[in-house]
């Protein structure tokens, strides 16, 4: 996997964590270290861009007793395992071109402004099963520089959400979620298509996204939605949990 594909993702999460006031971000040894100490999940409490194991002691001191992971895009698996890190569920990274994607849904996909930020945040929190107090993490990015946020509506009810974050002409597609009882109506396919078009409009060279790698017993709906939208596998990024 090309490590450069991680840069917009790392910048996006760091921006959201700092803007919301819910998280902490530190640059240590060239790596981006992020955490929400009240919610130490693999998505938020992790290190990205780690090129060498040399700063691991300093990074461990930053996290203290908070659980944390390394998203390894630089081939450090052997060295991390020697240091006691345990291999965890990995994420497949994807890329695609900028050709248009047609998607059909009975839901209405809208690019939203800050006055509708709660619609976006509510879907993200409910879709990921996160507590309500974490909603500002998603709400704060609506209208921020670099971000474009979309909501799929069933009438006036928000059903699905997804964001595009642009960093150095690479567009990261993240924060994708759908309310459980409104799944199966094409929300994510339509939101993926809208974000690809927005990436093209904003002059991106490459859209990129990720989801959990295919594994027995793991859900694969997101994986199928992404590949149906024309994305190609760019390689699995392994995750390692600190001992």
Let me know the number of strands: 11
| SS-derived structural category | alpha+beta
Name of the level-1 CATH class of the largest domain: Alpha Beta
Helix-strand string: HEEEHEHEEHHEEEHEHE
Q: Are there runs of 5+ residues with pLDDT below 50, and where?
A: none
Placed side by side, the strands forming the largest sheet appear as 1-2-3-4-11-5-10-9-8-7-6
Using the alpha-carbon principal axes, give the shape: globular
The tally of helices reads 7
Note the main sheet: 11 strands, mixed
Q: How does CATH name the architecture of the largest domain? A: 3-Layer(aba) Sandwich
| Structural domain count | 2
CATH-level-4 superfamily name of the largest domain: Gcn5-related N-acetyltransferase (GNAT)
CATH topology of the largest domain: Aminopeptidase
The helical percent reads: 25-40%
Strand content: 25-35%
Mean pLDDT rating: 95
Distance between the termini: 25 Å
- Output the radius of gyration: 17 Å
Structure explained in plain terms:
The structure is a single chain. With 243 residues, this protein is α+β, with helices and mostly antiparallel strands. It has two domains: 3-92, no CATH class; 108-235, Aminopeptidase (3-Layer(aba) Sandwich). The protein has seven helices and eleven strands. An eleven-stranded mixed beta sheet has the order 1-2-3-4-11-5-10-9-8-7-6, sandwiched between helices. Strand 3 (46-48), helix 2 (56-63) and strand 4 form a beta-alpha-beta unit. It is globular and about 50 Å long. The model has no long low-confidence stretch (mean pLDDT 95).
């Amino acid at each position: 996997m090309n490590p450069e594909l991680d840069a917009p993702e790392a910048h996006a999460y760091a921006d959201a964590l700092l803007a919301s006031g819910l998280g902490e971000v530190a640059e240590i040894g060239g790596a981006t270290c992020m955490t929400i100490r009240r919610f130490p999940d693999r998505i938020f409490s992790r290190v990205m861009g780690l090129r060498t194991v040399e700063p691991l002691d300093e990074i461990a001191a930053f996290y203290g007793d908070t659980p944390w992971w390394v998203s390894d895009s630089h081939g450090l698996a052997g060295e991390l395992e020697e240091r006691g890190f345990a291999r965890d569920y990995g994420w497949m990274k994807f890329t695609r071109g900028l050709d248009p994607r047609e998607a059909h849904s009975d839901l209405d996909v809208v690019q939203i402004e800050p006055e509708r930020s709660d619609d976006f945040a509510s879907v993200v929190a409910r879709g990921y099963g996160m507590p309500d107090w974490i909603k500002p993490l998603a709400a704060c990015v609506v209208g921020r520089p670099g971000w474009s946020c979309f909501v799929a509506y069933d009438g006036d009810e928000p059903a699905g959400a997804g964001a595009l974050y642009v960093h150095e002409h690479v567009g990261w597609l993240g924060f994708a979620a759908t309310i459980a009882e409104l799944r199966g109506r094409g929300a994510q396919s339509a939101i993926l298509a809208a974000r690809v078009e927005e990436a093209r409009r904003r002059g991106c060279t490459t859209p990129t996204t990720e989801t959990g790698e295919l594994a027995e017993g793991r859900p694969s709906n997101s994986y199928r939605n992404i590949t149906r939208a024309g994305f190609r596998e760019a390689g699995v990024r392994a995750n390692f949990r600190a001992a």
